[in-house]
């Protein structure tokens, strides 16, 4: 089984090479048979990669220590679920997951791409094949998950304990679905550049892919942030860690791409810009893969380090980013620009959005790469953390967030800011009220808190206003309004939900940062601690034994006003003997949208324990907002209009043009 | 064999995926223009919907309609549909190369990277097979699995402990001996084994903890050779070489002729004549050349050379004091040379470097105590 999986992987590499060269040649020479090769080969390549991945997962599940990567990252005593998730909890396996998703998306294009022009489809699959081939080669030569050990050791070295967690089981697949989803947008862009023309159906295809990738990336980042929050025991949700930035940059660029693709799809404008943005977004995804996988960073993500890998990924990076940008420089002048619009219009608002988002991406890029560059040149190790990003990223985001509610209310081609502002009066009044309430009753000292809450309320109400206006609030009877509301296109709901989710996330961030409280003290059993109106009693430390760890569980009782126990919170210090590592299991109690967060420190010789307790108001909204954004993207994906675009051969093209459309 | 069959089938399937589209009939792909037209038509109807909802003003909608119509007109003089071509020479050539490339590349690469003869080895299957066919590792893993399920099986620990010792898994051996003693009570063999495991886990140094175990063994069996041997070794390490030699001599007198310990004792005696420290010499000691030189010198010269080496180490630690191993080596060297004051001085300096509350300081103190030395006088 193991060797069959290995062979299937090699076979996928061979097929990826064929998928690159034959359709490309076919598209150049106009040979439909060669162009048709791309589809079946892409599907077969996916099937073989999936088989290979299944073989590796089986080896992990059955603790086959004759496979080197299983020996390095698994242990026979691990629970089965972590044996399986260990498949992608290490460098080799996660790269295999990466190409699995890549070939999966390629196969989707092959299966559902029947309505694409044949040359475009062939070129897209060829580019997709090229990406696949280089990564297959990377895996086979530098990080082969099927390397064997003979004789096989009898016990493995255990998976890194901080990765033995459900959050980490879900986070990488989601993140990779996002990263790799953008490869399709990239392939479409490069295919258009190779052809030297952008078909009208191009944007129709790129937008849903962008949506899919963006949706998964949003989920992956939210999941990763939540994992870091509860597993690392620091109670923080975002650290501006380079690994986090590596996933955040494609998200920012992808958000810009999502918006510019709307303009392109609806109005055929911003074609060249959208194309460039698609290339940049995937380039940032590749850069993220490079940063995490090459080991140039030493951070909380304790993953593989090996210079040969770094150099190889750097070559891939140069090949694809450099190659596509060179192609862009050569060919973009041949592409025709599209529709016209006034600066004050939906298009104009989306351009503004793109300006802000790309600039924000650039600041994050600088903040992430500058320390690395400095270290490479001078050897000095500096860390660029929250202060830098607060000063650069923050001021860029504030105006962008402030204008978000205007965008959906502006008309295409020529909009009316005044009319949009009038419609937003109610939302503005509510936001102002939120600012006043916060300043007067909650926290008068912090301008940031008051304005932040106001901005969040502004975003949420603005999104709701958009829905209300589009269903005709104020001008039609409630019954008709309800009917129109139900009849709104799904994409309108998608926009509103995504913007609403953004507001919720902002509210969560502001709430946690401004109104949170923290206490650190040394406690003995029986003592109580009080924080922001919540009283906890420390019940004591109890030893417990897990399947592959031992732990000291600290039990805490949450007390009600009358001193009775409402519920129990448990935080633990776990010791994993195989890796000789200790992890902290934080104790979390969710109250409404807020959380009490508890983490155990060291035990002193006199039996007391250092306890850190945080009160985190509205903190769950940070990730809840992410879920709402994902729901928005899913809603938008279900929109009817994204399914159109296939020429029906039964209809005669000439008679079908509506006469009203002719000048 | 089965592997090769599956590999051949997979290769065949992959080759067919390449071959079939190339050999199949041309489907006569629709022209790119048709696709564009469909999109434009859809844009027009969407424009109507937007205009009805008031998302675009009537005048702008009219303008947009004109834009789309111009694009549709432009389509008329675009490229005609791709011709349906029959199998040409180029197609045949490409087909041949592509189809051949799949097996050639995959089998070529695999023969470099793969291990086709190595079967999968799921752990459960390895542990389930006949014990007679199992390797020692597998037997140990089996015993470990059994003990993980029945941790109070003293006999199991008793069996496993000496095996760990032989496999050089010393920390595991310490735990196993402790469990066996806790569950099945003391015996000379268990206590002596525990002492041996502790000493070896510490790199061969007979610490106070190991001495306790050996002494417990001697209480139960005063003639236990392992305990006697290691206790003498401990004496030698503390620099009490004459006493160690005496103890070993005494062992030689009492051990039966066929005892396996005779060889070890004789070797230890021989080494103690050449070297001041018989066992527990850490890797950073003098290199072989220096030792050779030392053994061919007169006793005075040898003493002088050893003192030079120790002084060198002392000097090195003054330059680079954060070297815990080095400090312990220096302390022991002074003890071996019989310079208790200097040993104590080195110990205090080492503790000062790391701070009196540090992990290292505690280690130093424990180590010094095991050599019969206290930190401050």
TrEMBL record, chain A:
Any Pfam family the entry gives: CcmF_C
One GO BP: cytochrome complex assembly
Record domain Cytochrome c-type biogenesis protein CcmF C-terminal: where: 314-640
Transmembrane domains' residue ranges: 6-25, 37-61, 95-113, 120-140, 174-194, 206-228, 248-265, 272-291, 311-330, 351-373, 393-412, 424-442, 448-469, 490-515, 618-638
- Places the protein is found: Cell inner membrane
The terms describing its cellular component in GO are:
plasma membrane
> What are the Cytochrome c assembly protein domain coordinates in residue numbering?
88-294
Q: Which UniProt keywords apply?
A: Cell inner membrane, Cell membrane, Cytochrome c-type biogenesis, Lyase, Membrane, Transmembrane, Transmembrane helix
Membrane topology listed for this record: Multi-pass membrane protein
Give the superkingdom in one word.
Answer: Bacteria
The protein's predominant localisation is: membrane
Recorded GO terms, molecular function?
Answer: heme binding; heme transmembrane transporter activity; lyase activity
Q: What does this protein do?
A: Required for the biogenesis of c-type cytochromes. Possible subunit of a heme lyase.
**The protein's name:** Heme lyase NrfEFG subunit NrfE
From TrEMBL, chain B:
Using the UniProt annotation, give all residue ranges assigned to the region (Disordered). 272-299
Name the record gives this protein: C-type cytochrome biogenesis protein CcmI
The lineage, from the top, is:
Bacteria, Pseudomonadati, Pseudomonadota, Alphaproteobacteria, Hyphomicrobiales
Question: Biological process (GO) annotations?
Answer: cytochrome complex assembly
Give every Cytochrome c-type biogenesis protein H TPR domain span: 144-259
Keyword Repeat among UniProt keywords: yes
Q: Where is the signal peptide, in residue numbers?
A: 1-31
Q: Which InterPro entries match?
A: C-type_cytochrome_biogenesis, Cyt_c_biogenesis_CcmI, TPR-like_helical_dom_sf, TPR_CcmH_CycH, TPR_rpt
The subcellular location is: Cell envelope
- The domain of life is Bacteria
Q: Which NCBIfam families match?
A: cytochro_ccmI
Gene Ontology CC entries for this record:
cell envelope
- Per UniProt, which keywords does this protein have? Cytochrome c-type biogenesis, Repeat, Signal, TPR repeat
Q: Which Pfam families match?
A: TPR_CcmH_CycH
